[in-house]
Amino acid sequence: MSKQHHITLLPGDGIGPEIMSVAVEVLNAIALKHDFKFTFTEALIGGAAIDETGEPLPEATLTACRNSDAVLLAAIGGYKWDNLPRHQRPETGLLGMRAGLGLFANLRPATILPQLIDASSLKREIVEGVDIMVVRELTGGIYFGQPKGIFATETGEQRGVNTMAYSVSEIDRIAKVGFETAQKRGGKLCSVDKANVLDVSQLWRDRVTAMAKDYSNVELSHLYVDNAAMQLVRAPKQFDTIVTGNLFGDILSDAAAMLTGSIGMLPSASLGEAGKPGVFEPVHGSAPDIAGQDKANPLAQVLSAAMMLRYGLNESKAATEIEDAVNQVLDKGYRTGDIMSEGMKAVGCQEMGEVLIKLITDN
Ligand code: IPM
Ligand code: MG
C-alpha cells in the first residue's frame, strides 16, 4: 500500500480558498506520479473561524493540526475583522497556532527568480542572484514575553508594555536551526540583534558566538538590526542565511521579500521539534481587495506545498518537481496580474493552476 500523508488544510480568508484549491490539485497531481497519497482535512482559522465560531483559532482546528503530518495554510485576515478586540482578531489565531504547535523556527526564503527580476524595485545588478534565507525565531521574544498589556501607572496614566525576553534554551535551539540551514546552503550565517543596546540581544550574541565552534564550516557574522536593514537594500548579495529574533525577523523578512519584487511568489515554513507537524504558508496576505475574482497568484501557495513536501514530509523529489513546474510556467510566459509585464500571457488563478497541472502530468 502506498504511503499516506495526512494534511490539515487551513484556507483562511480573502484569496485563501482560491489559492488553496490550486495547491490541493497540484498536490494530488504530484501524488499520482509518486508512491504516496494525500488525505486532507479542512479546518477553520482567522476571520472564517471568527464568523463561524466566534474565535480565530477553535480548539478543533488546533487538534486537527496536531493530528496531521503537516499543515498547509493559505492566508488570514481582512478589513471586516480589523476592529474586533485583540483576542478575537485573525492575527491572534495565527500566533496561537504558532505557540500551540511549538513552531519556533520560521524559514523565509527570498530568492530572485530570473524571469521576474524586473519586478524588483532595486536595480538589476543589485538583486540579480539574490538568494537569502531568513531564519526567524517565532514563539518567543517581544511577541510572547511577559509582562505584556496596557496597565495603569500610580498616577493613573495608561502604559503599554511588552517584554523582549529570550532564555538560553530558546536562543540555542533557533541558533542551531540557523547554523544547520547555513550548512545546507552557502555556508554563511549572519546573526542579527541589537546587542549595542539590549541585554536580551547581548545574551543572544554570546550564545550564537559560542555555538559557532560546533560549526567550523559555517562563516558566522553579526549585524545590528538597523545596519542589517540598510545592508539588505544596499548590497543584498552579501547575505546567505540570516538568523534573528521574532520582531527583527518579522521586519527584515518583509524587506528581504520585497527585494524580489514578487511577494506573490514566496513560500515559508514554520517548524517545531523534529517529528511534529510544521505549518507551510505563503508570505503574502489574504488580499481581500481581489478575493473571489480569480485574480490571485497561486504560485506562493503552490511553492509552500513544495516546501511542505521537502521540510515536512521528506519528499524532496516531489518538491523539486513542483518547483521545476513553477519555473517552466514562468519560462512559458504565464503571469497573474501581480507579476504581469509586457508581452507575457495574462492568466487568472485557476488557469495558472491548470497550466501547472498539465506540466506536472506531462513532465
Ligand atoms: C508575519 C505577520 C504576522 C507576524 C502577523 C500577521 C501576526 O506579519 O507572519 O510576518 O507579525 O508574525
Ligand atoms: Mg510580518
Question: How would you explain this protein's 3D organization?
Answer:
This protein has twelve helices and 14 strands. By secondary structure, the chain is an alpha/beta fold. The protein folds into two domains: 1-104 and 272-363, Isopropylmalate Dehydrogenase (3-Layer(aba) Sandwich); 114-261, Isopropylmalate Dehydrogenase. A hairpin with a 5-residue loop joins strand 6 (149-152) and strand 7. The protein is globular and about 65 Å long. 47% of the residues are buried. 3-isopropylmalic acid binds at residues 91, 94-95, 250.
Features:
12 helices, 2 domains, EC 1.1.1.85, Isopropylmalate Dehydrogenase, 363 residues, binds magnesium ion, alpha/beta, binds 3-isopropylmalic acid, single chain
Mean pLDDT: 96
What amount of the residues lies in strands?
A: 15-25%
Corresponding CATH superfamily of the largest domain: Isopropylmalate Dehydrogenase
Say how many strands there are: 14
Name the poorly predicted regions: none
Q: Looking at the structure, what is the overall shape?
A: globular
Number of helices: 12
The fold-level CATH name of the largest domain is: Isopropylmalate Dehydrogenase
Order of helices and strands: EHEHHEHEHEEEHEHEHEHEEHHEEH
Level-1 CATH class name of the largest domain: Alpha Beta
Rounded to the nearest angstrom, the radius of gyration is 20 Å
Coarse structural class: alpha/beta
- Report the major sheet: 10 strands, mixed
